[in-house]
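Closing statement on the fe (ii) ion sub-project.
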Amino acid sequence: MSPIARLLLVAALVVAALGVPLVSSTTAQTREVNVYSSRHYDTDRTLYDNFTQQTGIRVNLIEGTEDQLIERIRNEGANSPADVLITVDAGRLWRAQQAGILQPVVTETLATRIPEHLRDPEGYWWGLTKRARVIVYAKDRVDPAELPTYESLADPKWRGRIVVRSSSHVYNQSLVGSLIEALGPEATEAWARGLVANFARPPQGGDLDQLKAVAAGEADIAISNTYYLARMLKSNDVSEREAAARLGVIFPNQNDRGTHVNISGAGVVATARNRDNAIAFIEYLTSDSAQDIFARGNAEYPAVPGVPLDPVLESWGPFKEDTLNAAHYAANSALALMIMDRAGWR
Ligand SMILES: [Fe+2]
């Protein structure tokens, strides 16, 4: 064999050895994934770096507020560079799906790792963390045994003692969406009227503001997502920690359907150019180590069962969660808003 023929043979063998990747569909993709996320925690950055180390796929992160990101992907249309959307609340993921900016993806890893009620039945989005929407009370003024359920918040004995954020916020739309499933629309509206009659003030501020109002004695009871209380308890500010120490947490409806839980989650964008990388990325976020970091970044519950909890969440103990599929209460959000509006919940 001539030296040139030998060289050609070696070259052919090298190409054959590399063969499959050279002609597979993945070569049409760059080794990157474009992630649009409304989460901005330093821990998330660590997570994305770990993914790059494991896979060689670079993560390009675009941050924005939840509604901005959905609007941005819509406006970018077919030219959107977005591969993955990460956002909070099933209500928003559902809206993104309705807006046509997500595509269905089902893989064995995702279906095995993520419990059924925390994901879209068709795979348009997947829950990655859980947050419970709980009742928080002033320990020195409220007996938690008197507030076993969301329904009990409408009892006239709590007149002028409850604070909650506006009905325009998706967290409340999702909660009320879950009540519509459990009680039906009429009973939910009657409940909402009773709750509004118990307000200590017109809705203002976010969940954290409601907790602070209870700690300051402006009200006795608040509705809040769990991570806001966890944040206060872990605050570097001693006055916030002292305020949080005056508050107790109730996981409602332990004797029937369980406490309403919502998710933060991710979906593959309809026009994703790096679809395989996007799927690999979301699958990576369901690994034990990623779940641990992702959930701890905001003191949330990991979506994957068996992953250790943040010590504050651990201290509250286990609770029964409502396993109504997130897509069901999310689909009720427009009706929920109408009901809250009719009940005078601004
Ligand atoms: Fe929040």
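The chain has two domains: 30-130+262-308, 132-260+321-342. With this model delivered, the sub-project is considered complete and its resources will be redirected to Aim 3.
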